[in-house]
Amino acid sequence: MDRANSLDRALRERARAVIPGGMYGHQSVGLLPDDYPQFFAKAEGAHIWDVDGNRYLDLMCAYGPNLFGYANPEIDAAYVRQLSLSDTLTGPTELMVRLAEELTAMVTHAAWAMFCKNGTDATSMALVTARAHTRRKTIIRARGAYHGAAPWCTPRPAGTIDTDRAHQLFCDYNDVASLEDAVARAGGDLAAIFAAPFKHDAFIDQAAPDPAYARRARELCDQTGALLIVDDVRAGLRMARDCSWSLLGIEPDLSTWGKCIANGHPISALLGSEKARTAAASIYVTGSFWFQAAPMAAALETLRLVRDTDYLERIMALGDRLAGGLVERAAAAGFGLRCSGPTQMPLYLFDDDPDLRKGFCFVSQMLARGVYMHPWHNMFLCAAMTATDIDQALEAAEGAFAVLKREAAGLAPVEKLAFLSAGQR
Ligand code: PMP
Question: Of the residues 83, 256, 378, 388, which has the fewest C-beta atoms closer than 10 A?
Answer without folding.
Answer: 388
